[in-house]
Amino acid sequence: MKNWQDTLVQPTASLEVAIEKLDLSAQQILLVTDEDKKLLGTVTDGDVRRALLKRLDLTTPIVQIMNRQPKMATADWSKARLLSFMEQQQLLQLPVVDADQRVTGLETLHGLLQKPRQDNPVFLMAGGFGKRLHPLTKTCPKPLLKVGDKPILELILESFVSSGFHRFYISTHYMPEKIREHFGDGSRWGVTITYIHEEVPLGTAGALGLLPHHEITLPLIMMNGDLLTTQNYLALLAFHEELGGSATVCVREYEYQIPYGVIESQENRATGIREKPVQTFNVNAGIYLLSPELVKSVPPDTHLDMPDLLQQEIQADRGVNIYSLKDYWLDIGRMDDFNQAQTDVSELFNG
Fold it and tell me: What are the CBS domain coordinates in residue numbering (predicted)?
């Protein structure tokens, strides 16, 4: 938000003054405010070009060309929410205002992309046996099976790193030494990795109880270590921040076609016939965003599955959100999935 004050301009300023201020501020936008700095509108390079094409006089007050319904953010918006909103709205700049719509700053897409670090912790689950991928997993833990020229878990890690995440926890159980040997302390990727070892399998959520709870002060992303996805994690963070609640569960739409004609009836009389109907379900995609309070509620050394933990939150009405994945997603659980991943990976991750 450097030098955002240079973008402030009064609505009575002329088009000529606006051009001069746009050149001076080099932000490609002016924030039109009243005497109390309340945002009235915005003027961009595009607005000026359109005014000149209409042959408006340079003395024309900018109130006549400004956008009177500008998009805006507040100071409590996270970087993830800002980036997601600007991407959705195709914005290069976004004014920041207080509760009274007084301007307090200006965020730019360029500036946000120069601040890549995301402090939210990421917990990758890598302790499973991968029995459905035998014989491949008899000598190698499933997260280290290569998809293309890299292990599955490395592709996942790098997708988070490219989005700015740097605090990682990896849960281990089966062949933990091989996972530790490959990833080390994370310094090869410029991140930190802490290992959470399950002496006995604790279920799909039990490892949360082994995390150093005092370090979990921000929402935590938890993800199965056998997924191939192009999921936008910043959009997920922004979604959760906007809705609040104790958890957000990523779901994937799954269609199932019943291979028979279905007879609809009331008592003993048919009321309709549907031939091979398709049913649609939201299935768990194995990616979660959990509040610090929820993470800390899981006691150590307790067997717990994620459906039970989430059901507990639903029954307590603490807010469990559903985030529908539209990006590529593949659960590499079976040999067919593993072979499909080999086909897909070059197109998804090359470059």
Answer: 1-58, 66-122
This prediction's pTM:
0.72
102 contact partners, CB below 8 Å, separation of at least 6:
33, 36, 37, 38, 39
Average pLDDT over residues 266-284: 92
Backbone angles phi, psi at 310, to 5 degrees: -70, -40
Nearest to 227 by CA among 321, 132, 154, 304: 154
Q: Are 288 and 313 in contact (CB under 8 A)?
A: no
Q: Which two tokens stand for residue 203?
A: 């279920």
pLDDT-derived band at 351 (thresholds 50, 70, 90) equals: very low
CA distances from 194 to 3, 62, 166, 342 (A): 40, 55, 11, 29
pLDDT digits (tens, 9 = 90+) for 163-182: 889 999 999 999 999 999 99
Encoded tokens for 21: 């201020």
Q: Would you tell me which CATH number, out of the four given (1.10.10.10, 3.10.580.10, 3.40.50.1400, 3.30.390.30), belongs to the domain 4-113? A: 3.10.580.10
122-349 maps to CATH 3.90.550.10: yes
pLDDT tens for residues 26-85?
Answer: 889 999 999 999 999 999 999 999 999 999 999 999 999 999 999 999 988 877 788 888
Residue whose token pair is 């929402």:
219
Write down the H helix ranges in the chain: 15-25, 45-53, 79-89, 109-113, 152-162, 176-183, 203-206, 233-243, 292-296, 306-315, 335-349
- What is each CA distance from 237 to 86, 117, 118, 240, in whole angstroms? 14, 14, 10, 5
Cα radius of gyration (the chain): 26
| Dist CA 95 CA 20 (whole Å) | 20
From 256, 232, 226, 219, select the one nearest 323 (Cα to Cα).
Answer: 232
Cα 100 to chain center, whole Å? 29
